[in-house]
Amino acid sequence: MYNTMKVRMVSVTLGAAMLVAAGSAEAAELKIGYVDMKSAVENTADYQQGMARLQSLQDEKIKELRALKEKIDKAEKDLLGQSMAMSPDRLAQKQQELKEMSKDFQRRQQDAQEELGAEKNRLDVSVGAKFQKVISEYGAKGHYDMILPKPVFLYVNEKLDVTGDITKLLDGKK
User: Where is the composition biased (Basic and acidic residues) (predicted)?
Assistant: First the structure.
């Protein structure tokens, strides 16, 4: 979140600098493009495959957690049905076992969230690094002075949009 705000602030500063430069004769020679970063990244095969893997992992974790939750619910139901017939020591033991099962469930739930978050972060870092490399190469080959993220401006002429080109390059298509 901090990095996103930092990028936006730098982008806004660059945008302001461009407006100041627009008054000069040099501004007519600037080659500027913009890219919808979210669209460019999310429409790549790598990102979509990564998200499919992430969804599969999430489904697997949900299935495991549901099974454990059902086991806990059954144990609670059994304990309630048998509590009157149990000795106080046996009742305390069963309650402790149930408490441990609940703790285990909470730990597994937290572990699953952390694992999913880490996988999403790895995907974002991987695709982000590739995105940065592609943008740099595209800008250099195309002799762009600037390629900015789309959200910086309130209005941008569509002819400056290079999102489709960047998505194709990210996918390795020429």
Answer: 96-117
* Residues 72-104 pLDDT 10s: 999 999 888 887 778 888 888 989 999 999 999
Q: Which CATH number fits domain 31-170: 3.30.70.100, 3.30.910.20, 3.40.50.300, 1.10.443.10?
A: 3.30.910.20
pTM: 0.69
Assign 3-state DSSP to the chain and report helix, strand, coil percentages, each to 5: 80, 5, 15
Q: Which residue has the tokens 């697997």?
A: 60
- Burial level of 19, CB count in 10 A (0-12/13-18/19+)? exposed
